[in-house]
Automatic annotation (TrEMBL):
Name this polypeptide is given: Protein kinase domain-containing protein
Top-level taxon: Eukaryota
Domain named Protein kinase: residues: 1-179
SUPFAM superfamilies named among the record's database cross-references: Protein kinase-like (PK-like)
Species of provenance: Penicillium flavigenum
Molecular functions (GO terms): ATP binding; protein kinase activity
Amino acid sequence: MNRFHENGDPGYAENSCDLNRFRRESNAYEKLLISGVCERGFVPKFYGYIDLDPAEFHPFFKLFTHGKFKAERTIARIPPKCREFELRELLGSPLYQAIEAMKEIHKAGVHHRDTYPRNLLLIRGNPDRLVWTDFDVATTFTDTGPKDLARSDYEIELVKGFGPALGRLCCCHVEHSVR
């Protein structure tokens, strides 16, 4: 579950880009869910979002009771069989999986915009698989015009650039993190 605590809606940038991280992530996950990307295992399963008053859940959300606005949360299931891995483990089939997953995310009309190895989870199983997480800066689109295609190509090239030279990285938090 990701937690977003805003002290007011930041609104939109001059170029119409949504600046609200909760809205960006929930919009991205809705598109990923509807298009089947969650079900096919390329991203965590999305269950929806909730808007709650932290004061009603005292003392569990005590740290969030002093803001002007309610805390908003997106709920996505992070599988329990994930672990740290080294980027060299991404070479070959896992790297191909990460690229294919990003292509599926793009087909759903979502640009991740935080395309770094730290946002990949390695899920142990038969077979092992990678899932993309952290869509709080993602943008969504409906038409694939030249700018959208260029952004998609750029993100794919970023993923292809992951390699052993980047060193050790922790990409999986075993427990659910609240941000």
